[in-house]
Amino acid sequence: MIAIRMTLRRLLADQTGATAIEYGLIASLIIVAMMGGLSAMGGGMGGLWGKIQSNVQNSM
To answer: Which of 24, 25, 36, 58 is the most exposed place for a label (fewest CB within 10 A)?
Structure first.
């Protein structure tokens, strides 16, 4: 019984996995923000490349 209590106390005091989870959450939030920004910018960039393509074709 004492060994189980000591093991549980040791597991509760262990903080090494918490930092990995926090870094994972931060990375996932950054990725979600990047996806939102790129999808919002994607339509404008498609129009920009289409404009450049039409200008190149007209100049040839």
So the answer is: 58
